[in-house]
Amino acid sequence: MPGRSISQWLFNPFRFVAGYKAMLLGLGIILISALIGSLGNTHFDGVLDVHVGNEVPLWYFFAEGVIDWLSLAVPLFFFGLILSSSSPRMIDVFGTQALARWPYLITSIAMLPKANRRFSMYLMYRFTSPAGSTALNYTDLCIFILAGIVAVLMIVWTVALMYRAYAVSCNIKGAKAIITFIVSIIGAEVLSKFLLLLLLQ
Q1: Mean pLDDT, residues 26-40
Q2: What is the 3-state secondary structure (H, E, C) of 35-103?
Q3: What range defines the domain where residue 66 resides?
Q4: Higher-pLDDT residue of 66, 201
Q5: Does the residue 96 lie in any domain?
Q6: Does the residue 1 lie in any domain?
Q7: How many domains does the structure of the chain reveal?
Q8: Of the ranges 28-37, 80-89, 112-121, 160-169, which one carries the lowest mean pLDDT score?
Q9: DSSP 13
Q10: What are the tens digits of pLDDT across the range 172-196?
Q11: If we measure between CA atoms, which residue out of 30, 23, 26 comes closest to residue 44?
């Protein structure tokens, strides 16, 4: 669109998309990412975490995405109410935080190859049975490394989007925005881990 560069859409789309549009689009992406992740046993079991894990029911993959999203959106909204000079709308904060997780869709696709699961099983076997002998598949190793690089880049990108979403939707800048975001994301990581573990049990 005129006056809107590609970099703005990639790194700060929240000036153009917010409210219910961001919420619907973000939730749709979270659910699609969970569905694709279920095909490769890719778990988003934490606000920032992603790894290949055990098989679980499909609903648990969906629960991971929703819990991760809410664990961060809730504290950010409350910080916005306390610190913002304006009046942040809940739908804007929650909607933009949902949309900020869209790079994880790329992660779920990158983790799809079965090579990731095979190499994860190889590592688990080596740690649990170091005396055993099993051949290392170098093709699986290369695919696993590439998927890991993609996953790390997407995490960095997602964190940047989450911060932008917070700053824009709550109209907070500078040290206040940075400090409260760091506190929120650390707390959300711990909370999401706890809730997902509790739900799994």
Answers
A1: 94
A2: HHHHHCCEECCCCCCCEECCCCCHHHHHHHHHHHHHHHHHHHHHHHHHHCCCCCCHHHHHHHHHHCCCH
A3: 6-200
A4: 66
A5: yes
A6: no
A7: 1
A8: 112-121
A9: G
A10: 999 999 999 999 999 999 999 999 9
A11: 30
